[in-house]
Amino acid sequence: xxxxxxxxxxxxxxxxxxxxxxxxxxxxxxxxxxxxxxxxxxxxxxxxxxxxxxxxxxxxxxxxxxxxxxxxxxxxxxxxxxxxxxxxxxxxxxxxxxxxxxxxxxxxxxxxxxxxxxxxxxxxxxxxxxxxxxxxxxxxxxxxxxxxxxxxxxxxxxxxxxxxxxxxxxxxxxxxxxxxxxxxxxxxxxxxxxxxxxxxxxxxxxxxxxxxxxxxxxxxxxxxxxxxxxxxxxxxxxxxxxxxxxxxxxxxxxxxxxxxxxxxxxxxxxxxxxxxxxxxxxxxxxxxxxxxxxxxxxxxxxxxxxxxxxxxxxxxxxxxxxx
Amino acid sequence: xxxxxxxxxxxxxxxxxxxxxxxxxxxxxxxxxxxxxxxxxxxxxxxxxxxxxxxxxxxxxxxxxxxxxxxxxxxxxxxxxxxxxxxxxxxxxxxxxxxxxxxxxxxxxxxxxxxxxxxxxxxxxxxxxxxxxxxxxxxxxxxxxxxxxxxxxxxxxxxxxxxxxxxxxxxxxxxxxxxxxxxxxxxxxxxxxxxxxxxxxxxxxxxxxxxxxxxxxxxxxxxxxxxxxxxxxxxxxxxxxxxxxxxxxxxxxxxxxxxxxxxxxxxxxxxxxxxxxxxxxxxxxxxxxxxxxx
Lengths: 323, 294
Fold this sequence. Notes:
Chain A is mainly α. Chain A is built from 14 helices and no strands.
C-alpha cells in the first residue's frame, strides 16, 4: 500500500513540478547567458525534452530498423536490397499496397468530411455536447471492442437461417438475400474502411469543432449583418479559417490509413484480399520471423509520407507569411 | 466583450427559418442513429445469455424483456484484481497524458514563435515520425529498459507513451499556436514579458481548445492501449498491469468468449467518456476572441 501511495504522490505532484520546474530553471539559467547566446540557445532549451524523447523512442529504433532491413531473416548476413525487392514483387504485398491506397482515399475523405459536417451541424443546436459525445463513443471503445461490435453488424449466415448480423437482418426485413460482407472483394475492404470511418469521424469532429470555436463571433455576425447567407458565410469565412486545421486532420487521417492495422487484424487478419501494409509488417515480424522484410515494410511506409509532409511545410510557410 | 456579444450571437443563430431548423434536427438525428446503432446492438447483446447471442439477432430480444441477464457484467466485475487493475490504469494514464502534452506544448511554442536554423527540417522530421509503426520500436526499446533496470516500472510506460504521442501532439499544437495573432506576442514583448511569461500567460491559455482535445485523445489512447503495457510491463511485473490487459486475458483464457468481452468493453469505456464530457466546457467560443482584443 505504501508503494501505491508513493506512486500516487509522484503522479499528482512530482510529474507536473518536474515539467514546470524545467522551464523555470532553464529560463533562469538563460538569464545568466549573454544576450546573443540567450536568443540562440532558447529554442533548443524549449525543444530539448521533446527531441530527447523522440530520439530515444522513435529515431533510434528507426535507424536500427533501417539497418535490419538490409539484413537476412537472422539479422546476420547483409543482403542488400533483397527485402525491398521482395516487398515490391510479391503479389500479396502488392494487394496490401493497393488496399492502402483505397484506405487512404476513402478514410481520409469520409472521416474528415463527416467530422466537418457534424462539427458544423451541432454547432447550431442546444444539445451540442450530447450529440458530440455520442459521435465520440466509438473512439472511447477500444479497437478490440469495435471489432466485436462490427462482427455483429457484418455477421453472415447462409440464406434461410436466422440472421444475427444487423445489416443482414435489415436486408432480410426488406426481402433481400443476405450478403457475406467480409468475404467478397473488393467490397470487404470498403466494409473495413467503414468501421474505421465510424471510429475516426469523432476524432476529426473534436479537433475541427475546437477550431470552429476559435473563429471570432464578431466576424461571423458582421458578415451576416452585411446580408451574407449561411452558405456564403461558410465558404467565405468559416472554411478558409478552418483550412489549416482541416489540413492537420487530413494529414493525420492519411497517416492513420497508411498505418491501418487494428481493424484489419481483429476482423479479417488480411484474409480474402483485405491485407494492408501494417498487418503485413506484423505478420512478417511475429508470425513469419522475418525481421528484415518487416523492417523493409516499415521503411516503405516512412517513405510514403514524405510527399504529404512536403505539402504541409509549404502550407506552414504560407501561414507564416500572412500572420 | 464576449459576455455581451455571445448571447446575442446565439440568439441570431437560432433565429433561422422554422423549416430549416427541423431539417437540421432531422439530419443530426439520423446521423446519431446510424452512429449509435452498432453500439446499441452490442449493448443489447452484452445483456443476453451467450446461447441466445449466437442463435438470434439482438433486435429479437427487444420484444421479450424477460430474456435479459446481467450475468456477463457480474462475471467481469467479479474478476480478481479488477480494482487494482483500475488503479494501475489511472497511474499509467494520468502521467502518460500530462507529460506528452506539456513537453509538446513547449516544443510547439518554440516551433511556432522562435526563429532558429533548421526549424522546418526538424519539424518535418518530427511529424514524419508519426508514421512509424510502434511495433517496430519495441525490441530495441525493451532491451534499453532492461539495461537500465527499469523494465516493469510505471516509468517505462510513461516514457514510452510520451515518445509515441509526441509527434501528433506537437503537430496539432504547433498548428494551433502558429495561428494565434502575432500582435499579442509582439505587444507582450514590448511590455517586457519574457518568452516564458508569454508562454504561460498567453500561448497556453489561448490554446485551451486544442490542449483539451489533445488531453482527451492522449488519455483515450493510453487508457485503451494494450500492446505497450503488455510489452513493457507484462513480461516483468504483473502487479502493475492495467485494465486492458486484464480484459484481454479474460477473453483469451475463455477461448474468445465475446459476451464477456462486450460487457468488459462497456465497463472500460465509462471513464474516457466521463473525461470527454468533463472537458466539453473548454470547447467554447471566444477564448481567443477575448485575448486578441486585449
